[in-house]
Fold this sequence. Notes:
Blueprint: E1 4-6, E2 9-10, H1 11-14, E3 19-21, H2 32-48, E4 54-63, E5 74-78, H3 80-97, H4 101-107, E6 108-110, E7 116-120, E8 122-124, H5 128-139, H6 152-166, H7 173-186, E9 187-194, H8 197-206, H9 216-227, H10 233-244, H11 254-268, H12 278-282, H13 291-309, H14 317-327, H15 332-335, H16 337-346, E10 348-350, E11 353-355, H17 358-382, H18 389-400, H19 405-413, H20 417-426, H21 433-443, H22 450-461, E12 464-468, H23 482-488, E13 495-499, H24 500-506, H25 511-518, H26 524-530, H27 540-559
Parallel strand pairs: 3-5, 3-8, 4-9
Antiparallel strand pairs: 1-9, 2-9, 4-5, 6-7, 10-11, 12-13
Helix pairs in contact: 2-6, 3-4, 3-6, 10-13, 11-13, 11-16, 11-18, 14-17, 14-21, 14-22, 16-17, 16-18, 17-19, 17-20, 18-19, 21-27, 24-25, 25-26
Amino acid sequence: MATLTAETKTIKEIFQREYLIPDYQRPYSWGKEECQQLLDDVADFHDDKSNDLYFLGCIVIIPTTPTEAEPTRWIVVDGQQRLTTLLLLVKALHKKAGTYRDLEECYRIPHPREGFTDDFRLQSEVIAWDRENFESVLKGEHPPKSPKTKNRFFENFDEMVAWLDGNERFKTSDALEQFIRTLLHRVVLLPIQCDKLGSALQIFNTLNNRGLPLTDADIFKATLYKKSPTGYREKFVNDWQYLMDNGGQNDYDVVRLFRIHMHVLRAQKSVTGKEIGLRTYFEEPTRLDDPQAIVDCLTKYKAVDSWKDRPEIYDRPAIYIWWSILWTSPDKVYCHYPLYVFLDKHGDYKDGEFALSTEKEAEFVKLLEETVRYCFIMGVATNTVNSIKPTIFRVCKAIAHGEDHVGLYRENSQSSVHVFEGKLTNGYYGRYKTGLVLTSGALHHAQVDAESREDYSKFLAGKYHIEHITPRQWNNYDGWTEETHREDLDKLGNIIPLEYKLNIQAKNEFFAKKQKHYKKSKNPEARCLGEGEYDDEWSPATLQKRNEDVLKRLKKFFLEGRD
């Protein structure tokens, strides 16, 4: 059984120990805003001049095994950002205060006889660049030459020094000393000491703190790095940074790539049973033994994501259209695994680019269509993701081994067909409404040539809303009563996807005025509606006619040819 202890400690007491930031942690990420908040919190508490203690939060730590050469150090599972920033503040105060042994003892380890050693209280196994930057600040050195990344350590340290220099509170040495005493002896943290990593991670994940969540990918990264041959480690770090790069937005979802990889491996090994946790799966022996192969696979899946979104894919619009429709499904996580199994097996990946042959493209479009059919039939009929998992796992295995996956889809949805048809007819499609509306657009008679299908691809790639042809607000016109308006409002015949800007312009207008906006749409179905497909007025009878047309083509797509 795991054990843990917790007892509040002052900053001075906290930094009488030695800490280690493990390599699975993310690089230091606090910016000026978080640092300024910390400074303001401590300064405001200091100004209150109360006798209370100021609680700065929790840290979660586990001990290393001591040896004769090295005493116990504490591995920081949660609290890296806070501890690092506190030491930057201690260093900034030490720079301003000059000789102040209590401050120096917080960030440097004393030598029993000769002043201080060259070792620091907080050390890092995170990428070398992070470690070198932090140590350079503590040594009082200038920033090393930087790659194309922010040097947050020096930026935050300089901001702290400037804050201290320009702060009226610290005009005298006595005032500065009082602030230092407040920080060291009246600001406290709560170290939660665990004896096992699993317990520490569980506690970490339940705490509300200022840090970034530690993901499964962070743990896998550490394992892969440790298992990498020495000559590959630098490349591994660069490859991993590429995986995380998301064009300046939040980090790329590498956990999702690992989950795809798990299902590709399960399919290859003919595993179709219940899915286990991601971390549990990759903790199995040998699963992470080949870091280069793992990273190559993850990079290929990321290249698939880029491939399906590249502009030239519009020249092959069926892929983009059906993938976009599937992406609207509430079950999209599981519905996408068969696609990646297929593309892993049949696609070509070279020099960072993914490609699929023309022959295999036709097979892939067929897989997309069948996956849409299966997931929407089961989703509308059962309204639960658990109903599709067993078949999805079997389909993944069938694709990996060249077996009949279409038959599996159809066989395992047959018992839900009548429920699906009934709900579709009666307007009970729940969370699948958007996908059904988009499917109706893909099947519309205007989609007769490559140009119109390419237009629909570009439409789906943009920002669109679901437009109610009859306005949401009843206004006693065009033959609707308040009751019939309420009944007809969300029927598929009264809904059409429209570009965001056009939707704003058309909102709550009469139909004749809306038509001029529909004509401008890249959605061929909307253009037809704008050009008088159902005449130039919108009434209950017109809506009913369009609703029948929409249901007819949806039922033809989802239900015909199953026997």
